[in-house]
Amino acid sequence: MKKITAVICVLFLAAFFAGSALAQSNASSYFMLDTDLTTAGYQGMGDILEIGAGVEVAFGMYAMQIDTIKGFTVKLEWDAAKAELRTRDSGIEIFDDTVEFNGSEITMAEEANILVGTIGSLPVTSPEGEFQENYFIQGDGGNEAAAGLAYLAVFRTGADFKTTDALTVKASLTVADPDGNERFLGTRYFHVNQSVDVKPATWKEVKDQFKDF
Questions:
Q1: Which of 1, 136, 190, 204 would you call most buried, defined as having the most Cβ atoms within 10 angstroms of its Cβ?
Q2: Which residues pair with 183 in a beta bridge?
Q3: Taking Cα atoms as reference points, which of 77, 76, 71 lies closest to residue 182?
Q4: Closest C-alpha among 125, 159, 147 to residue 53
Q5: pLDDT at residue number 141
Q6: pTM check: above 0.90
Q7: What element of type H or E holds 204?
Q8: Which stretches does DSSP call E strand in the chain?
Q9: How confident is the model over 29-70, as pLDDT tens digits?
Q10: How far apart are CA 157 and CA 170, in angstroms?
Q11: What is the dihedral of CA 146, 138, 154, 67, to 10 degrees?
């Protein structure tokens, strides 16, 4: 009887820890915004200043410390009276095009998405000044790296936008593992015509500020 009880306990504990490991998928994951689009991978944020009317401003969203994902949801929120999202220039890949972004002419570094495979998408109906879309792997595939590009967001300021005006874009990212478990990675802010003191952030600082555990 003692042996049977011991075996049952071992099986129970194994199932418990397996379930705990599953529940903790992507537990250390977070995401960052990047305005250095001339270099592949996450580089960091810089001030976007002296931006007037009809100018395209852009940033990349990078998923970091990912265990395993099969999809993610991008959500962007902004003042629609100040700018529009350029969906034809935005997307889940970066091409080596020469463009005028963030007040300068640059040649972007080509970069694939963190998802590897056939990527499908499902837009979510959103009010003006909001964009939300789900991206997912169709069939086999997933992520092969722990960090990588999720989305390139490109906005164009309005016809009445002045260098004295400020624009803030609120960006959020949620990832889903192969079992459909979702994890919200928090919210970051992209500022135009606002000087922001940006410093490198540790994962703990990001977790404490943006995530509710």
A1: 190
A2: 175
A3: 71
A4: 159
A5: 84
A6: no
A7: helix 203-210
A8: 30-34, 56-64, 71-77, 83-85, 98-101, 104-107, 115-124, 130-143, 148-157, 167-176, 182-192
A9: 999 999 999 999 999 999 999 999 999 999 999 999 999 999
A10: 15
A11: -20
Which of 69, 34, 26 is closest to 201 using CA atoms?
34
The pLDDT assigned to 208 comes to 53
Tokens of 170: 């609120």
Identify which of 145, 189, 170, 175 has the alpha carbon closest to the alpha carbon of residue 70.
Answer: 175
Match domain 28-210 to its CATH number in 2.60.40.680, 3.40.50.2000, 3.30.200.20, 2.40.50.140.
2.60.40.680
What are the two backbone dihedrals, phi and then psi, of residue 89, each rounded to the nearest 5 degrees? -95, -20
Terminal-residue alpha carbon distance, the chain: 41
Q: Beta strand 167-176 with 98-101: parallel, antiparallel or unpaired?
A: unpaired
- The two structure tokens encoding residue 192: 């135009």
Q: Which residue has the tokens 């555990």?
A: 213
Which residues contact residue 69 at a Cβ distance below 8 angstroms, ignoring those fewer than 6 apart?
Answer: 26, 63, 114, 115, 142, 143, 175, 176, 177, 178
Tokens of 62: 């990078």
In the three-class reduction of DSSP (H, G, I as helix; E, B as strand; rest coil), residue 3 is classed as helix
Low-confidence residues of the chain: pLDDT under 50:
2-22, 198-205, 209-213
